[in-house]
Amino acid sequence: MKIKQALAGIAASLAFGAFAIAADFGSAPSDYEALTVEYFGERLTDPRSARYDFVGEPYQVFADLRGYQGVPCWAVDVRVKAKMPNGDLGGYVPYTVLFLDGEAIALEADVIRMVKA
Fold this sequence. Notes:
The protein has helices at 2-22, 32-41, and strands spanning 51-54, 59-65, 68-81, 93-100, 103-107, 113-116. It is α+β, with helices and mostly antiparallel strands. It has one domain. It starts with a helix and ends with a strand.
């Protein structure tokens, strides 16, 4: 029984690896910083006062979005410091922004599952 489980695990790993090789991530978003700021600008109460701290370069992930599984995306880690309802600046909050075809499409919190490629 353990041999069958091991073979099934190896087959699943190979299938995922083949999918990862065949996936088309496109090119990394070159202007990811400006696109991220624009993406948050639509979601913050006072986007002009927000501060952004980008943590690293874009990296490839597979994301399960509503209705779609294993979508090859680019991800960018950023920390955002924005105004709170009382007008004070809060602390930095970490986010991961997902990009598809050069556009910011979601935050990691919005996806069902995300796996680094």
